[in-house]
Amino acid sequence: MMYAFVRFLEDNVCYALPVSCVQDFSPKSRLDFDNQKVYTVYRSPAHDPEDGDESPGEWRERPPLHKAQILALAEDKTDLENSVMQKKIKIPKLSLNHLEETGEITDYGDEDMELRHCKRQDGKKQNEGTHKSIEAVVARLEKQNGMSLSSNSSPEATFMETSDRMNNMDDAVVPRVLYEELLRSYQQQQEEMRHIQQELERTRRQLVQQAKKLKEYGTLVSEMKELRDLNRRLQDVLLLRLGSGKYLIM
């Protein structure tokens, strides 16, 4: 008996079911189906329309048919399992606009596994770009901070040296009040400069710590996504082997 890998449109859940569960569907080969068509399918193989042992009462109790899309056909469940593991089954994105009027499904040609891979690669590139930007800012701050701290002379010594040179000039006459006022202003500016340098140093250390944390976080996120993809694939295979054939499409 052939099996069909179908996706129910109402909840986007996949099942591996006998083809006899599909209403008015008798394929002659594994390619004898239309993945753009909406079929009506029973969710459980226990309600097989070709089962001749059912009583009339059981026929009346059968659950309703559901709209579904056929993604693949296979001779048995083993073939379906191999197709899932080898990513041979193409799972298009759904576009349910005007579905009731047209009865067709728009296939964008994107596989679910490929989309997850692309998103994972985009996330890695974004984290690397942010990390490089932070490193560039830190390097620039270190360069500026190193240039500002290169001089070891005190503000008072620098100012006195300049004053001595001025005193040696015959035409340099500076009142003492003006001299003291200029000295206080110079000292105040130097104090503000030291405060700014301390703030820059503290900001630099914080940026370095954040850059390290961001790099570790990016690595953890990438590993988590890879583990999640592997876990989802293992769950799909396990459900097939248990006979339910249930797949969750994210």
Automatic annotation (TrEMBL):
Lineage: Eukaryota, Metazoa, Chordata, Craniata, Vertebrata
PANTHER family: BEN DOMAIN-CONTAINING PROTEIN 5
Keywords from the named record: Coiled coil
GO aspect biological process, one term: negative regulation of DNA-templated transcription
Coiled-coil residues: 179-217
A GO MF term: DNA binding
Species per Swiss-Prot/TrEMBL record: Crotalus adamanteus
InterPro entries: BEND5 (IPR040391)
Protein name, per record: BEN domain-containing protein 5
Region of interest: Disordered: 42-61
Superkingdom of origin organism: Eukaryota
